[in-house]
Every structure is written in C-alpha cells, then in structure tokens.
Please model this.
Amino acid sequence: MIKYNKYKPSGVEWIGDIPEHWGKYRLKNISISVNGYSFKSDDFDREYDIPVIRIGDVGDIIDFEDCIKVKSKFLEEKKDFIVKKNDILIGLTGGTIGKSGRYNYETPSLLNQRVGLLRNKKEVLNGLLYHYVKSEVFIRYIFYDCYGGGQDNISMNDILNMVFPLPPSQEQLQIVQFLDEKTELIDRLISTKELKINLLKEQRITLINEVVTKGLNHNTKMKDSGVEWIGEIPEGWLIGKLKHNSELKISSVDKHIYEDEIQVIVCNYTDVYYNEYIKSNLEFRRGSCTQDEFTKFKLEKGDVIITKDSESPTDIGVPSFVSEELDNVVCGYHLSIIKPNSNKIIGQFLFRQLQTTRIRRYYEICSNGITRFGLGKSSVLETPLIIPPINEQLEIVKHIELKTKEIDDLVKLEQKKIDLLKQYRQSLISEVVTGKIKVTTDE
Model:
C-alpha cells in the first residue's frame, strides 16, 4: 500500500490525516444541493409522463416502470426540482437514510420530498463526489454524527456541512479512474453472487408452489380442480374459499401509545414483511390498545398474518406465521390476522399456500390505490384454497421446512460474501478519497 510523503490533520476525527497538498472544503462550497418537493397525492398517476424520484427509488439503477409520475407541465412549474444526469441522490429519512445513487439517465425526472440532491461544481469532479458519498467516511458521518441522536431524518444542511478532502484536479482524474475500475470489478463479483441468490430464491418459490399444489407423491392420480388458474390437484384434495376455512380479523391497533389504554407489544408491518415466522425474539415495538382490541387482535400460536396495505401492490398479502406462544403481543395496523379452522387447514400449511405465486398474483390484482395500495376484506375472504387431508398437510409442511432451510443456508452464505465485498468496497473508497492510499502517479 503506497502512501503520500507528507500528511496534515484534517481537523475531523472521522477523516483523520489527509495529504499535505490537498485542500478541504465543506460540501456546501463545492456542490449545489436541492431538497425534494412535497407533491400532493392528487398530482400522481402511473399513466402520466414525468417520473418522480421517491426515497424508495434512490439508487444507481431506477425502475421507471415502478415510479409514480406527474403531468409534463410540472417540469416548468417545478423546474427547481428537476433531476439531471449525473446528479447524486441521497435518502434523507427512515431506513434509507444515507442511501445514495447517481442519476444515470438523459431524460429528466422530478425530486420528491425526503430525497436530497447534490450537483458538483467545477472545483470537484462528479465522479469523485459520487465515490465520496459511497464511502465509509460519508456513511459514518450520516449515522454517527447526524443520525446518532435517534431522529428519523437528516437534513441537507447537515450533509452540506460535511468536510470534503479535495485533491488537485489532475489527481482527481486519476483517483476517479482507479475507483471506477476497482468498484466495477467488485460490483461484478457482487452481481454474480446476487444472481446466484435470486436463482436460489426462485428454486425456493418453485418448491413451495409445486408441493403445496401437487403434493409429495408424483404418482398420485390427479383431477380437475374446477378453477382454471389452479389446474389439476390430487384426487383426494378439495377446493374451498378462505372464508369457509378461516376467520379474518383486520387490525385497528395504531402505532400511538395512549396512557388510558392497555400497554401492549405490537407486531407491526415490518415485522411481518421481513420475517416468515413471528417469534418472541423479534424486536417488537411497544404500543397500546383498548380491551376490545386486545381481545380481538392478540396473537396466538398458529395464526397467519398478512400485510393489508403497502406502497406497492406486489407487497400486498405478504404472509407470516406465528410459530410460538407470544406474551401480550397484538397485531398492528396495516395487517390482518387469519385464524385457520384447524379441523380443515393447519396454520402453517395455510401460510405456505399464501406464499404461492398464484395467490400472490391474486392479491396483487385485487389491490387498489395509486400512491398506496390496499387489500379489501372481501378479496381475502374469497381467496381460493387447496385443501389436502390434514395428514398430508403435515407431511408437506415438514418437507418444505427441511428443503427451504437447505436453500436458506446457501442464501445466507452468499449474502455473507456480498456483505464482505460491500464492506471492502466502502473501505477501499474511504482510504482513497481521504488519501490514506496513494493511487496517483505524481503528488
């Protein structure tokens, strides 16, 4: 590892020493910033022309098909919020604080609230600014110096006060070229492993689809299910609707805590969305509810929970299974509880069936909304279910548990490799943009 000949203190603990001949500026002196505009929900429609970059869209690749759009007149009316090619986007709130990406497109978009934008001035190359916001130095500043107080957001003013070590122009060119090459190589390795993970996940979905709808015995006699999009099912199996085999409860427990209510633990949307199994070791939030709500929405072992509302129709109806007894945990808002009739269908088999592609697509089609989507009670109650005999349900569940664990272990192994590569990427960028490693030919 080659170092520069002389260093000087940067004056910033998390940057440390920088090469003696480098300058240091605050981001506000070397870049232009823009805060996103607070569009109204009535402004949006997916059939309009101009994409609006929301916090969930931030990244180096933007899926414009998934973007909310506004009428083209907004390009003139809100021209101060136009996103241009090479602009650097930064998430300013929630779980995406500090997430960044470069806008790599010629066609303009508009910037939504909770997203910030940096545009480099001539003193600093766009590529250097881009790599800087991808570095450990930037991430550390966001989370430890700004976000450490526990607030749910960070302002562009906070970001603009960051110190930026600035090499001479010729060195900037060499640094950007070096980091472009190295990060491209790392990104290719990451992409290869992500592809492997996606293939494993597809294998997992295929397994669940096949076993839940066709059973474990490939030689069993089949019959027409009577439902076109289900096709054939084993001869001894039945077709029914969820309303005849389960009880549905739509939660009204919100995230607020009221002193005059029962103090409880609340299972929220994210607990369900990110976890197949609801267990006592999850980090639930505290909340409150009335006695009537506690009686209705207290979670019990064997319950199935689904997401009822979401920002995307593909996230509607995501199921999770309550796999153990919970103490004082109630189901929160934006979720519904399904309590299966154990004489007809066991909870874990119902949970796996709700994971199948056919039901996920059914819920996606049934969802309604523009900026936020919801799943109506009647759509859930009318869900067509395949119902094998209880003994076969138990066998199928056991088989799925065994096989999905094998796949999940492989996914975790690949994900660990990805995480290490990402850490190395951030660390490498930090070492170079702060001058700890010399990659230039001349000082």
The two ends are 15 Å apart (CA to CA). The chain is about 35% helix and 20% strand. The first helix runs from residue 27 to 30.
